[in-house]
């Protein structure tokens, strides 16, 4: 009898050890600056593939309207980590807010300045946007920064266009098609969706490829990354490493699977009804995803240069851009797991 009870107890103990609760997963909240945007796909896909779970994390993704809202969530304490554009780390450094990117998943920003179909006749260049209403994901987001940079680059006051927050997905497409705005800074899949309905869609600036990114910025310009406050990264090294491992595994999965495989793993509501257009947009976007997860120091310098040109505050701040990112966790992943970090 004692032997039977002993075996039952051992079996129960084994079940407890095997349960998800026994793993005591660390809960992390990631604020995403617009989950439907393909620029953030690696973060959403990591969740879909179970990579965060494999890394010992219980991750909640909070989908927000734009990168500035995701940043506010972290600075306000309602989220731990931002999945957003690295340029916020540089911009906030000028305000003495220490943010640190620790794994980069977009080699290029993928930002596209598009003219509304109903305003194509009167807008032929960036200079024509003075006094016009231009949509961005949210004021203060990377889409807004990009617009101001282009205005300044073309000899205009960065505030000469009226900025309207329209989100990144269906709301942005609707605002463009209904003529509520004259132009917008958009990302895929929204750009490809608009092109599907308007083949002659006028594009004034495009950063979806290396060639276009170099033409626009004069160098590579990193886009999406996971970042948090420097103090959070310093006090949560184990969690930061686990998040890095999950994203690197996801990037490796992306580059070893077909666009069709990737689309099949994404949430239905993000793919939308027109799967053919989503797939076309995804095929355009895949080259944008990093193969290494590492920050290119020259890319970080380019971000600083762009912001210094468009923001007097950044130009005067004497920012040490090397403090706004770290490659330590990506390099550690290579050593301990063999994950790619060329």
Could you describe the 3D structure shown?
With 342 residues, this protein is α/β, with parallel strands linked by helices. 46% of the residues lie in helices and 15% in strands. The strands form 2 sheets. The chain has a 5-stranded mixed sheet, with helices on both faces.
Principal-axis shape:
globular
Order of helices and strands: HEHHEHEHEEEHEHEHEHEHHHHHHHH
CATH superfamily placement of the largest domain: Periplasmic binding protein-like II
pLDDT averaged over residues: 89
Number of strands: 10
Assign the CATH architecture of the largest domain. Answer: 3-Layer(aba) Sandwich
Question: What is the CATH topology assignment of the largest domain?
Answer: D-Maltodextrin-Binding Protein, domain 2
Largest sheet: 5 strands, mixed
Q: How far apart are the termini? A: 60 Å
Count helical runs. 17
Can you tell me the number of structural domains?
2
CATH first level of the largest domain: which class?
Alpha Beta
Structural class: alpha/beta
- The main sheet orders its strands as 2-1-3-10-4
Helical content (DSSP H or I, runs of 4+):
40-55%
What's the structural blueprint in terms of helices and strands?
Elements: H1 2-18, E1 26-32, H2 41-49, H3 51-54, E2 57-63, H4 67-75, E3 81-85, H5 87-93, E4 99-104, E5 112-115, E6 133-136, H6 142-153, E7 162-165, H7 170-177, E8 183-186, H8 190-197, E9 203-206, H9 210-217, E10 224-229, H10 230-235, H11 237-254, H12 259-265, H13 268-271, H14 275-285, H15 297-310, H16 312-316, H17 328-337
Parallel strand pairs: 1-2, 1-3, 6-7, 6-8
Antiparallel strand pairs: 3-10, 4-10, 5-8, 5-9
Helix pairs in contact: 2-11, 6-15, 7-8, 8-14, 11-17
